[in-house]
Amino acid sequence: MTRLTDLSLAQARDGVAAGDFCAVELAEAYIAAMEGLRSLNCFILETPDVALEMAAAADARRTRGEGGALNGIPLAIKDLFCTKGISATAGSHILEGFVPPYESTITRNLWNAGATMLGKTNLDEFAMGSSNMTSYFGPVTNPWQRAGDDAKLVPGGSSGGSAAIVAAHGAVAAIGTDTGGSIRQPGSFCGIVGMKPTYGRCSRWGTIAFASSLDQAGPLTRSVRDAAIMLGSMAGHDPMDSTTVDVAVPDYEAELGQNLNGMRIGVPKEYRIDGTPAEIEALWDEGVSWLKSAGAEIVELSLPHTKYALPAYYIVAPAEASSNLARYDGVRYGLRVDGNTPQEMYENTRGEGFGAEVKRRVLIGTYVLSAGYYDAYYLQAQKVRTRIAQDFHDAWEKVDAVLTPTTPSAAFAQGDKMDDPIAMYLNDVLTVPASMAGLPAISVPSGLSGDGLPLGLHVIGRPFDEMTVFKVGQVLEDAANFKAQPQIMAGGG
Fold this sequence. Notes:
Blueprint (H helix, E strand, L loop, with lengths): L8 H10 L4 H13 L7 E4 L1 H16 L10 E5 L26 H8 L3 E6 L38 H8 L5 E6 L5 H7 L2 E4 L19 E6 L2 H11 L29 E5 L9 H16 L3 E5 L7 H16 L17 H12 L2 H14 L4 H22 L5 E5 L15 H5 L6 H5 L4 E8 L5 E8 L4 H15 L13
Parallel strand pairs: 2-3, 2-4, 7-8, 7-9
Antiparallel strand pairs: 1-3, 4-6, 5-6, 5-10, 9-11, 10-11
């Protein structure tokens, strides 16, 4: 008999709706699972009582013949989303103990769809990181291990807690945020699906900000279909967020399962980066073959400004972070470390409250925005960003989607690259261009490295054409038939 924690989101949804099991039983199974996975440190806060209360309400709705698209589905919530009456820390000491008096739009949408909350997941502090090593609450451990090696691996970041708990079957699905790859990269490292929608598709209201022109919420799931179901409940125009776009949200799930006849898929030459492992290049070539077999036409493509995306990102994102994080001063909420003067109190609070990576990015951001450097750095980076977006705009006249690898490597060991920020930042080299252009993109687990670790393929689509991204993603998923499971999984496996 299939365990409840092994069901996909679609299967769990259908099972609850049909009365095969109740939402409370599903919640209890996942509560037991997440308790057995505490060694991974995926959660900053577990909320089992809240999950059971919400599950009971979901069962009552089903009895009345009501219930939304996610009725009774237990989810893990990245601790960057404000949840009314439940703490939100952004993985930082400076917000430890902060309890929001309001609900983020994304989580409210999920609760309106009937979902239940298992807890708040761990993340790199203020979403700044690619390893989940910068959290004040300690690192998250990837449930995967290298073959013949018991070294603890990173789950990727910043949504590492969300990715790891879904991969380990400690949650049906989770939500994260993606600024430069923070959903897709941990999705690839943990062997699950990570989807970033178009900038403006999902509301940012009530989401603790890192870089406001880049941040987007998205789902982390165990299948492309599950991601489509999740995004359908998350997305939509929000009057509280002026950056959301008032366009209809399609029924993403309904259009899955089609072939790719007549579709043109671009393969950009600039993504073939020196030093990329041969196994990742081979997987990319295999992905091209899978899409050809599904009826797609493969088009060699040039995105000439791709090589400038990463350095431009690490100017734009820290600049916005330095502005957004100025609000944490010890006066209104969160940590306060007293001093003899207000200025000293600000300095003490920020000095003790922020971790090393956050301080580094705030300093970089303040520098590039300062007099004498704004034109030389920030303004130039914005011009480069425009050129990157134009490259993609031109590409859409030739292709319907773009296929690349998700990451330049498989998951690495905890502690690796921590002394070399540039090496750490290079983890985002393949995901950042889509972020800079505001495009939808998905990472689909498609193979294993020589060490037995998951590798992902990455599909980028036109603005607000998540449907095509899901269609291509499902073809890759079906062809890859990725069935491998992490060594550390709820209840074994």
